[in-house]
Amino acid sequence: MALRAGNRCEYCGLSQAGQEAAFHVDHVVPRVAGGPTALDNLALACVSCSLRKWARRTAPDPATGEEVPLFSPRFQVWGDHFQWDGAVVVPLTPTGRATVAALAMNRALALAIRLEEAERGRHPPP
Fold first, then answer.
1. Domain count, the chain
2. DSSP letter assigned to residue 74
3. Does 86 reside within a domain?
4. The pLDDT of residue 1
5. 83 assigned to some structural domain
6. How far apart, in whole angstroms, are the C-alpha atoms of residue 67 and residue 120?
7. Domain annotation covers residue 125
């Protein structure tokens, strides 16, 4: 699974290299919602994204307040919903906006880590 993910968080793109905490195995469709523990429902997630996503499948779009699905790394393409502007994850869709907000992808600490990762040649993801 880590190989499939490129050893990166499949939500925010953070490289596991250099991180103190081991990344989590996230159920894209949470077990409480009937999601199986099967490779096609699992994603590598940094601790921050994993804990913020928890068992949620939806979140409000900050632009409209409408409840929309969170990004699913097993069923959607990251670049369809997000792009990079330096260290900032720029959402492109309602799902992108809801996911960036719900997972706090652009919080100050995440930006600082990405800037350091850029200096080490690990950001942005390939």
1. 1
2. T
3. yes
4. 86
5. yes
6. 37
7. no
